[in-house]
Design goal:
4 strands, Ceramide synthase 5, mainly alpha, single chain, disordered C terminus, two-stranded antiparallel ribbon, Arc Repressor Mutant, subunit A, 65% helix
Length: 371
């Protein structure tokens, strides 16, 4: 175990040349450097955030949903049938014509009736509009609060106005209480999302979003451990800037305020493009790739960090293209269509998806979170 730990915390990977872990162990009085052990604080905080979410959705979001006439309705349920249930759970949720014909003969039902049973059964597993509204309201509240806090904190930080301050004196940069609280709260929130995935209604994008949350947790933890928290705080703020607008658009959609939904989606799209395609590469990537090279110089974890940030930029471009397709349709047709077949992953993190027509004109959920 000691050998494995020594290999993982190899100084030549994590730290610039001529810097050792011992150099960071005894900072000046009143100065604290980041340590991996600090991140364990995020775990109990994540549990606390999860509890707060449950209370928020029950006592705040749910009454708001009811006031907007979004009730916890129960859709039509499929009649109990052991044969079809076994096929649904073990073989396929969307039987093809061959399966439909076989089941029709076995049960002496019309094919149309078998199709209807499967449609009703699929609908049972979909989260209700009330549930989705409460979830979006919680995320909207958190994203708005954390973005407000982060922006206010960065407004008073020198590295927001001159990103070279992210690298002056690196890695001997003190971890201030404001930066620590910002980082740990963001980390705890994404841990809480991972926890809640196992208690929420299972969606088709469960694995995708789990990997997304795990990657986000890993990136935040990685940047904290090697004391790239200053530039990391810029990355967090850039991504938080549009997330609350997305959740606001979802809430408007669930409440059937279509014009407000369309407007918010356009505003979200503009904010997304500006922050992810302009500010992020010009402000963040320029600093991590070129300013840090000139001030600190490259080393192994520096290369890894920049590769991950570049991969994120590639994803931004892909997501922006997919978002633009819906935004253009909204402008040309006057509303955001519900029949798009694209599944859009929005960062830092979230997922948008729309509805697609099945072969019989019925709207079928295509995975992810409905916009």
């Amino acid at each position: 175990m000691a050998a494995l730990s020594a290999w993982f915390w190899n100084e030549r990977f994590w730290l610039p040349h001529n810097v050792t872990w011992a150099d960071l162990e005894n900072p000046a009085p009143g100065v604290e450097y980041p340590k991996a052990g600090h991140l364990f604080t995020a775990l109990p905080l994540a549990l606390g955030i999860f509890v707060v979410r449950i209370l928020f959705e029950r006592f705040i979001a749910s009454p708001c949903a009811r006031s907007l006439h979004i009730h916890q309705g129960v859709g039509r349920r499929a009649q109990p049938n052991a044969v079809l249930e076994k096929v649904f759970t073990s073989i396929t949720k969307n039987p093809d014509s061959r399966h439909l014909d076989g089941l029709s003969k076995q049960l002496d039902w019309e094919v149309r009736k078998v199709q209807r049973w499967f449609r009703h059964r699929r609908n049972q597993d979909k989260p209700s509009t009330h549930t989705k509204f409460c979830e979006s309201m919680w995320r909207f509240t958190f994203y708005l609060c954390i973005f407000t806090y982060g922006f206010q904190f960065l407004w008073q930080s020198p590295w927001m106005w001159d990103t070279r301050h992210c690298w002056y004196g690196y890695p001997y940069q003190a971890m201030t209480s404001g930066l620590y609280h910002y980082y740990v709260t963001e980390l705890a929130f994404y841990w809480s999302l991972m926890f809640s995935q196992f208690t929420d209604i299972k969606r088709k994008d469960f694995l995708i979003m789990f990997i997304h949350h795990l990657a986000t947790v890993s990136l935040i933890s990685f940047s904290y451990v090697n004391n790239m928290a200053r530039v990391g705080s810029l990355v967090l703020c850039v991504h938080d800037a549009s997330d609350f607008l997305l959740e606001a658009a979802k809430m408007a959609n669930y409440a059937k305020y279509q014009r407000l939904c369309d407007f918010l989606f356009i505003v979200f799209s503009v904010a997304f493009f500006i922050t992810r395609l302009v500010i992020y590469p010009i402000w963040v990537l320029n600093s991590t790739m070129f300013e840090s090279w000139a001030i600190v110089g490259p080393y192994p974890s520096w290369w890894l960090f920049n590769v991950l940030l570049l991969v994120l930029q590639v994803l931004h471009i892909i997501w922006s293209y997919l978002i633009a397709r819906i935004a253009i349709k909204a402008i040309l047709r006057g509303k955001v269509g519900h029949k798009e077949s694209s599944i859009i992953w929005v960062l830092g993190c979230d997922a948008l998806s729309c509805w697609k027509e099945d072969g019989h004109g019925e709207q079928q959920y295509s995975g992810g979170l409905l916009l």
